Amino acid sequence: MNKSQLYKEIVKKSSFLCVGLDADSKKMPKPLVGNADAVFEFNRAIVDATAQYAVSYKPNLAFYEEMGECGWSVFARTVEYIRKNYPEQFIIADAKRGDIGNTSAMYARAFFDEMDVDAVTLAPYMGADSVKPFLDFEGKWAVILALTSNPSAADFELLKLEGGERVYERVLRTSKEWGSEDNTMYVVGATQAVELENIRKIVPGHFLLVPGVGAQGGSLEEVYKYGANSECGLLVNSSRGIIYASLDDDFAAKAADEAQKLQRQMSMLIHNS
Amino acid sequence: MNKSQLYKEIVKKSSFLCVGLDADSKKMPKPLVGNADAVFEFNRAIVDATAQYAVSYKPNLAFYEEMGECGWSVFARTVEYIRKNYPEQFIIADAKRGDIGNTSAMYARAFFDEMDVDAVTLAPYMGADSVKPFLDFEGKWAVILALTSNPSAADFELLKLEGGERVYERVLRTSKEWGSEDNTMYVVGATQAVELENIRKIVPGHFLLVPGVGAQGGSLEEVYKYGANSECGLLVNSSRGIIYASLDDDFAAKAADEAQKLQRQMSMLIHNS
Question: Labelling A149: which of A164, A214, B16, B87 has CA 20 to 30 A away?
Answer without folding.
Answer: A164
